[in-house]
Amino acid sequence: MGLCSVTTLRNRSVQNVSVSQLFRPKGNLHSMIYFIADKPGKGNLSESVPLVGTSSYKTLLRWCGEMDLDVTRMRMFNQSDKPFEGLSGVSLNLAITKGHIKVIALGGEAKKYLLKAGIEEFFVLPHPSGRNRLLNDEKFVKKTLEQCRDYIYKGVA
Predict the structure, then answer these.
(1) Domain range 28-153, its CATH number among 3.90.180.10, 3.30.1390.20, 3.40.50.720, 3.40.470.10
(2) Which pairs from 150-155 meet CB under 8 Å and 24+ separation?
(3) pTM of the predicted model, to two decimals?
(4) Which end of the chain is flanked by fewer CB atoms within 10 Å, N or C?
């Protein structure tokens, strides 16, 4: 596991802390999680990594913290990049059914892509954009994150 530097203000010291120590889940290890977004937005800093540099990314990371997810077990894809094209739908769906992979669509466009790609089991989170009015309802967001966490940790001992 790689090390990163964390600066503390009280001693002005730099400590080496493993990434896994910063983002360690409290419970058992969950499956790999594939987040599927729509396409790179205007504020996206990298076309190869969805949402990075946007407020949507910050919201998604906060949600991941609230769901107690290990960020080292997460992968993010844009549906516009067709991440499942060329893969056997049978083997991918088998990996999902066995619980090795959990797939989460971020919004309606990602959901449409997954259905078209033949993915049989996935969870749909609302898109984490600040323009998404569903996110104004804190009870809805809390309930949805609880359901998503249950989906992710289903079958984890």
Answers:
(1) 3.40.470.10
(2) 151/102, 151/104, 151/123, 152/30, 152/31, 152/33, 152/67, 152/69, 152/102, 152/104, 152/123, 153/27, 153/28, 153/30, 154/99, 155/99
(3) 0.74
(4) C
